[in-house]
């Protein structure tokens, strides 16, 4: 692989994607590969300064997205708590009716 080709690949993969198409899935083999890369990337004195979480459960991803939006929308703890409670009560009713 040429150095120029490698630079083009790096320029492509360094972009941050935040608007995922949740209807598509990513093969487990790819996820495992990215986890390996993240866990084995070079660092100062081979030390790890982060915890890595790979979340593939769609319900958990949906919950994290909801919590992120609520934290941004309701910086006041009491209002945030009310909205989170409403969310869980709605989810609970949905699961009971299935």
Key descriptive features of the protein:
single chain; 98 residues; mainly alpha; 4 helices; 61% helix
Q: Decide which structural class fits the backbone.
A: mainly alpha
- Name the beta content range: under 5%
Query: Which range best describes the helical content: under 10%, 10-25%, 25-40%, 40-55%, 55-70% or over 70%?
Result: 55-70%
Uncertain segments of ≥5 residues (pLDDT<50)? none
- What would the principal axes of the Cα set say about the shape? elongated
Order of helices and strands: HHHH
Instruction: Kindly give the count of domains.
Output: 1
Query: Which value, in Å, is the CA radius of gyration?
Result: 19 Å
What's the N-to-C terminus distance? 53 Å
Most strands sheet: none
Q: How many DSSP helices? A: 4
Number of strands: 0
Mean pLDDT: 81
Q: What does it look like?
A:
- By secondary structure, this protein is mostly helical.
- It has one domain.
- About 60% of the residues lie in helices and about 0% in strands.
- The chain contains 4 helices and no strands.
- It has helices at about 5-15, 30-40, 60-75, 75-95.
- The radius of gyration is 19 Å and the shape is elongated.
- The termini are far apart.
- The model has no long low-confidence stretch (mean pLDDT about 80).
């Amino acid at each position: 692989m040429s150095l120029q080709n490698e630079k083009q690949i790096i320029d492509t993969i360094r972009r941050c994607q935040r608007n995922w198409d949740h209807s598509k899935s990513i093969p487990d083999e790819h996820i495992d590969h990215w986890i390996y890369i993240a866990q084995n990337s070079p660092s100062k004195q081979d030390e790890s300064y982060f915890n890595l979480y790979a979340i593939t459960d769609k319900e958990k991803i949906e919950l994290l997205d909801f919590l992120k939006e609520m934290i941004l929308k309701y910086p006041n703890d009491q209002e945030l708590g009310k909205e989170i409670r409403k969310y869980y009560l709605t989810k609970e009713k949905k699961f009971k009716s299935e």
